[in-house]
Amino acid sequence: MSSRGKRKDEDVRASDDESESHAPAKKVAKPADSSDESDDIVVCNLSKNRRVSVRNWNGKIWIDIREFYVKDGKTLPGKKGISLSVDQWNTLRNHAEDIEKALSDLS
After folding, report:
1. pLDDT-derived band of residue 63, with 50, 70 and 90 as boundaries?
2. Architecture of the structural domain at 40-106
3. Per-residue pLDDT at 100 exceeds 70
4. Is residue 54 a contact partner of residue 63, using CB atoms and an 8 Å limit?
5. Which of 6, 19, 59, 77 has CA atoms 20 to 30 A from the CA of 68?
6. Domain coordinates of the chain in residue numbers?
């Protein structure tokens, strides 16, 4: 019988000892209305559920392009989206002409 794919008893005991001392940290959900030093300025709505906003979060400025959803009458940010630092935004903005050219080449 092949030992391929099977663990040795020593490996099992070692991993059991480690799992007791290194429990994963629990995530704590924040209430939706809690103040976490986040200030949003909605710049524009791209569609019904997508918007561009500029935010100051934890002392850093981010340009956020994100989908939103409505739950219990509240509009909440979804997982789908991107937050760009000011440097990343400047890089994207500096390439706007290249993006326009690529769009016209594909059209």
Report:
1. very high
2. Roll (2.30)
3. yes
4. yes
5. 59
6. 40-106
